[in-house]
Amino acid sequence: MNRTQLFEQIQRKKSFLCVGLDTDTRKIPAFLKAESDPVFSFNKGIIDATAPYAVAFKPNTAFYEINGSAGWLSLEKTISYIKEQYPEIFVIADAKRGDIGNTSAAYASAFFDHLQSDAVTVAPYMGKDSVSPFLGFKDKWVVLLALTSNSGADDFQQMEINGNSLFEHVIDKASGWASPDEMMFVVGATQTKFLTKIRQMIPDYFLLVPGIGAQGGDMEAVAKYGMNHQCGLLVNSSRGIIYASSKTDFAEAAARVAEKIQGAMARFIK
Amino acid sequence: MNRTQLFEQIQRKKSFLCVGLDTDTRKIPAFLKAESDPVFSFNKGIIDATAPYAVAFKPNTAFYEINGSAGWLSLEKTISYIKEQYPEIFVIADAKRGDIGNTSAAYASAFFDHLQSDAVTVAPYMGKDSVSPFLGFKDKWVVLLALTSNSGADDFQQMEINGNSLFEHVIDKASGWASPDEMMFVVGATQTKFLTKIRQMIPDYFLLVPGIGAQGGDMEAVAKYGMNHQCGLLVNSSRGIIYASSKTDFAEAAARVAEKIQGAMARFIK
Questions:
Q1: A114, B67 Cβ separation under 8 angstroms
Q2: What is the ipTM of this complex?
Q3: What DSSP assignment string belongs to A51-89?
Q4: How do residues A182-207 score in pLDDT, each as one tens digit?
Q5: Contact B97 A150 (CB under 8 A)
Q6: What is the pLDDT of residue A116?
């Protein structure tokens, strides 16, 4: 999916909501455990219920890998289902990969060719030749970690180097590696005080913003300080939506939370 | 596996060789493609042939994920095979994971509980609360990226902060999070000029050293500057061993290369 298509979907749905499919078998409703693939059954329910309000889905690979190859099968079925039923929705594999060149190239093929995701999250620590193998795939995206939502972001990302934080150096260098048509940056919703400066540095890039809901981030502040002329935001909520109810009404409950967030987002979309 | 057991194996085999199982379906001998699981068949051949000379095996998840859930099944079978046939050998899942706390906890369970690997490589960018969920598993290890073997290591890892490089800050902080009984650090074999300083900082920690062979690192310099009183090194070679021949003698050819490296290593083991 290209940037124009993504922005058109945002305008049509009046939403920049990304629903995080962090589907933990220990947390899904008990009645689903009788299904042959409880994770996929849960995801189908969440996807169908929240698709009207979401422009992106973001499965995090950790919650699939905890079930090994069976979990990867659930992940494959989940992305295939989204691509078949909702081809307009952007799919981000939240994998935080990154390795030496030939290895990153294998990851890129895994996530773009095999899984058919539109985007993959990548960690910047190993530098340019670990990121660039993910670039150059038509209408595919790297979402690079810049300033994350967790408390550990202070350990290294906020270290000061020649007057700027490490995360600012990451943004500065990496924005020279790829255009806003194939790279986005992760900025946690708990980091809104840095959004103004980040927007000065990279006015045109999309930001993937996790951390509203369970992690305490503020969607309205994100919209106020993070938007650009093409929205430029994908704001993610995972646990707050997908675990809104632990009963048979889990999908309807997820839809109600997603609709509420979308309603709040609509006020920011022209 | 604990540190004493690992050191005993190193002394017994007179080796600190780690064989990287970066098994790329595009590179394995053509005759294996008739097998039901060519990756696993190849790995069995390599494992059986090199086990006498190796103290560790390191499958890199990228080369399994490129085949999706079928690839993860090959990975599961590979680690099970090593654990059944060669329980004394240390298994490192080279996955370079790292995420917010509850997500890193899911990865830790995937790699330690489900896959039964002894160790997993972790990226430090997201800080302490992204690393600590991998700690506290009995006889399991975090192998944290410090200074990698690729050219991109210069982009961020070598940035200077208050007189020290970022990778030195990573080593300094992270060695405060975990003892040498449950943490190792990755230092590329192309980075030998930094080994003396690294050993001053962390005399007791094991280092996982990739990059000899195809990447051009020098095993003898690594041993000279990187060893400690308990060896303290696992030196990895992947492509140079596993692709030594592309014919039916691939396993024997791998054994010959592994034996040659082990022979060079033996001179450094008391």
A1: yes
A2: 0.97
A3: TTT-SEEEEBTHHHHTTHHHHHHHHHHHHHHHHHH-TTS
A4: 999 999 998 899 999 999 999 999 99
A5: no
A6: 98
- By C-alpha distance, which of B244, B159, B152, B228 is closest to B190? B152
Q: What is the model's pLDDT at position A217?
A: 73
Backbone angles phi, psi at A100, to 5 degrees: -65, 165
Q: What is the pTM of this model?
A: 0.98
| Single-letter residue type at B88 | E
* pLDDT in the model for residue B211: 86
Residues of chain A in contact with residue B62, where contact means CB-CB under 8 angstroms, are 97, 99, 103-104, 106-107, 110
C-alpha span between B124 and B126 (Å, rounded): 6
Q: Report the candidate in A268, A267, A270, A265 with the shortest Cα–Cα distance to residue A55.
A: A265
Closest CA to A51 of A251, A227, A264, A246: A251
What distance in Å separates the CA atoms of residue B142 and residue A164, rounded to the nearest whole number?
Answer: 30
- B179, two tokens: 């003892």
> What whole-number distance in Å separates Cα of residue A116 and Cα of residue A110?
8
What residue ranges define each of the domains in chain A, with the CATH number in brackets?
3-266 (3.20.20.70)
Q: Which of A58, A96, A138, A270 is catalytic?
A: A96
Contact B60 A103 (CB under 8 A): yes
Neighbours of B151 (CB within 10 A): 15
Residue A130's pLDDT band, with cuts at 50, 70 and 90, is very high
Specify the pairing of strand B90-97 against strand B119-122: parallel
Chain A residue numbers with beta carbons less than 8 Å from the beta carbon of B106 are: 24, 62-63, 65-66
How large is the angle between the packed helices B68-85 and A68-85, nearest 10 degrees?
180
Q: Helix A38-50 and helix A68-85: axis angle, to 10°?
A: 30
Sequence-distant (≥ 6) Cβ neighbours of residue A86 within 8 angstroms: A47, A51
Pairing status of strand B56-59 against strand B183-187: unpaired
pLDDT number for residue B214: 67
Residue of chain A with shortest Cα separation from B171: A156
> Residue B234 is encoded by which pair of tokens?
């696992």
Do the Cβ atoms of A152 and B114 come within 8 Å?
A: no
Beta bridge partners, A234, equal A208
Task: Extract the residue ranges of chain B whose pLDDT is less than 50.
Answer: none
Give the pair of three-digit tokens for residue A259. 């609709």
Active site residues of B: 96
Buried b (16+ CB within 10 A) or exposed e, A57-71: bbbbbbbbbbbbbbb
Does residue A214 register a pLDDT over 70? no
